[in-house]
Amino acid sequence: MRLYGKYMLILLKCQMQYKTSFILTAIGQFLSSFSAFLGIYFMMTRFNAVNGFTLEEVMLCFAAVLMAFSLAECFFRGFDTFSTIISNGEFDRILVRPRNEIFQVLASKMEFTRIGRLFQAVLVFCYAIPASGIHWTFDKIATLILMIVGGIGVFCGLFIIYAALCFFTTEGLEVMNILTDGGREFGKYPLSVYGKGILKFFTYAVPHALFQYYPLLYLTDRSDSKLYMLLPLLALGFLIPCLIIWKIGVRHYRSTGS
Amino acid sequence: MKAYRAFFRIRFTAGLQYRAAAVAGIMTQFAWGFLSILLFSAFYKANPAAFPMEFSQLASYIWLQQALLAIFMPWYLDNEIFALIQSGSLAYELVRPLDVYNFWFVKNLALRLSRAVLRSFPILFVAALLPAPYGLTAPSGINAFLLFLGSAVLSFMLVVSFCMLVYIATIYTMSPLGIRVAALAATELLTGSIIPLPFFPDKVLAIVRLTPFAAMQDLPFRIYSGHVAGSEVWPALALQAFWLVLLFLLGRAWLAKGLRKVAIQGG
């Protein structure tokens, strides 16, 4: 953990060397998620409700997913650019070091410019938490935190799979974007909006709904099942198969040389 | 003219080589379009009266948008041009007996077109087979289709002239980051790539319609499905042509000014 802190400090200092670039990229991140927000706002003011959810409830959902995604992207970004680590032979160096390889990939890159997105998520929370009309008891606060934690876990798991597939293909697979970027884009709205089939897919195949839709039901008093509140913890279990795929990938690894 | 044509052909065939990437792109775009349409259908169920267009018109809009992504998306920029501005290879561009503006313009047209050729047809084909009202429907008439083609060509060139401004700005600032960020953030929402423009609140829409961004993809898509028809079409096309000429001339003048005192980076 101390080593991770050191890595983090170095990467932070490194990115701070290019301050203008850092600030502009962060602003860009903020603006792009702000336009996503405006998209929701325009739609919700026109239609008032979608699938029974109001603007404030959709905003909670949007902010939770956005926050989970931006935190996951900030700290687990190393997996996202993993194809370059493989193709330039950097992974050979990682393997000979006396540290866990996942740890090293994790620590190799952090994207602090995601603070722009995070800021947008915080702003939306600031408005939606009081405006949603939810009575914020201890359970409700815990649910919201669990949603974010579960979301970080699921996005992180997807990044790991994305990286693990590079062992087999050397190139990154663009199709995975449907689950990562797509998960963020379409997770703006509660997943039930897309119909039963899609909801099932995002429950059993990829557990986006476990940290998004079901806890939101508990949060907005549509269901009082404590199970729904705890489902994000189950979503964290998604990391286990992801890590297994990763292990298989590492065993399969053959250096690309150079 | 012959030189540009030859160059166009080279870039175009080079672009056609990336077939595996195209397959991945097609699947991504298809899933994206599919989920967007499901989302809008939920809104449609919530309140059909608030829907600003027919549902089938919206479906066509989304499918055309996904299929022609490489043609109309302003953020699809040529990294080679940024690299040569930053590395100083810009000098080589100036030595060539070609006009730099036209040269880059053609390069971008070819790059986008080659990507679109590989990706658009499979998406359009599958989208046309989907059951109504979720699929791509035929254009609302032969007249509408011809106007769509005309407007699409104008949009295509308008998008490229807009990208040219981004490249040219980089000659002044040297780092593409800031400009790219600003250009991207402005265009994504205003061109209708997040939600189609007809879903904007009326007051906002009235202003957005006057900007060049509304002419970058929204107009041809709406002409296709007959959402704009009759006497409304011609003024819109005129505005589109006006923006194209303005951006084109602006880009040329700005580039000429920039090249007069260009500082070539070493290396």
**Poorly predicted ranges of chain A:** none
Total number of domains of chain A: 1
Shape of chain A: globular
> Rg of chain B, please?
19 Å
- As a percent range, the share of strand residues of chain B is under 5%
Instruction: Determine the structural class of chain B based on helices, strands and strand pairing.
Output: mainly alpha
Shape of chain B: globular
Query: What oligomeric arrangement do these chains adopt?
Result: heterodimer
Judged by helices, strands and strand pairing, the structural class of chain A is mainly alpha
Q: Largest sheet of chain B at a glance?
A: none
Runs of chain B in which pLDDT lies below 50 for 5 or more consecutive residues are: none
- In helices, the fraction of residues of chain B equals over 70%
State the largest interface.
A-B, 36 and 34 residues
How is this structure best described in words?
The complex is a heterodimer of chains A (258) and B (267). By secondary structure, chain A is mainly α. Chain A has one domain. Chain A has 15 helices and two strands. Chain A has a two-stranded antiparallel sheet. In chain A, helix 9 (138-169) runs antiparallel to helix 13. Chain B has 267 residues and is mostly helical. Chain B has one domain. In chain B, 73% of the residues lie in helices and 0% in strands. Chain B has helices at 2-15, 19-46, 55-67, 69-72, 79-87, 90-95, 100-129, 142-173, 176-190, 202-208, 218-225, 233-260. In chain B, helix 2 (19-46) packs across helix 7 (100-129). Chain B is globular and about 60 Å long. The model of chain B has no long low-confidence stretch (mean pLDDT 88). The interface between A and B is medium-sized, with 36 and 34 residues.
